[in-house]
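Below is how a single chain appears once it has passed through the pipeline. First comes the sequence as given, then the structure the pipeline wrote out for it. We keep one example in the README because the format questions we get most often are answered faster by looking than by reading.
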Amino acid sequence: MTLANRTVTHVHAKPHYEQLDGLRGVAALLVVIYHIFEGYAFAGNLPVITCLNHGYLAVDFFFILSGFVIGYAYDDRWKQGLTLSGFFKRRLIRLHPMVVVGALLGVTTFLLQGACHWDGTKVPLSWTLVALFFAMCLLPAVPGCPREVRGNGEMFPLNGPAWSLFFEYIGNILYALFIRKLGTRMLGTLTLLLGAGWLTFALSDASGYGSMGVGWTLDAPNAVGGLLRMLFPFTLGLWLSRKFVPLAVRHTFWPCALVLLLLFLVPYIPGKAPVCLNSIYEAFCVMLVFPCLVWLGASGSACSEAPASPSVLSSAAASRFLGNLSYPLYMVHYPIMYLYYAWLIRHGIGSSVTHIALAVGVVVGCVLLAWCCLRFIETPVRRWLSRKFV
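Resulting structure:
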């Protein structure tokens, strides 16, 4: 995901963009809450999500962060001897352990649900295991094929959000093979062309969704839209990393986090003729506000040199905690959501204390599960793999 590319302090004494890590964590937490309300819309047959309606734009924010951090961390290392195999090993060690964990958790919750399609059709154990193998390898399912075990068209039916990691891998491969070789001017030209393609797809509502919430399945509009959705902000982030000069600002984390929250709270904007009005707002976020937030977050990190305050509300402490938690949280929360959605469908939606308490419990449970995965799986596994292979 996208949100997995936390900056790493190298021997080159580069500053660590900790506040960017923290903003990734804020976006990941807002994705979890967005999916809570998505469950209410899904179970209640509502036409739009009623709260945090634009929470799906967190993925686009992840992509621009990913490009910025990849460019910052690796652009100058190719001249110092970094090889393709070395780059890919580092990226796999960074990203793939939680892909496997998410797939294992996904198959566990799928079996707990009874191993059925959403329509109640039983899925043979053999195809469930096949789906698990492909999910651990991050190989997508075509809608309607036997290993698309939930029957709702997801690329990764055991862990839906893994679709963004699939496109993230494509972005990393393209970066290593040719994008990194482009000069800054050519990279800017490529970004403009991809932006034009993104804008054309969005404003014409080519997906039919009334939004750029595409990429989660492999039908033609989602395949094309998903690539554009990843490539444009990813290359924009790469270009920003090359042009970045920090502003003289400090402690930008909380203001930027508040801006993210407010952006995601904006309701869906209806209207598709002559252009999709909701996509005008999406373009405003992705093309203007998100680059500004990345620039401010990186500037705040570069200019905040004072020792971290012990307060949990300090920018440094919050950024560190949320940044560390961001990728595990994104990769493990959705299998829990499948259980939550099934419960909502069975019991209906409402505003009772039980419903509210369960929703809060799901969010807290996802955070605790992510912390356990970080502490006992992701960190030790990545350390072991780095010692062995890098």
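The chain has eleven helices and no strands.

See the next section for the split statistics.
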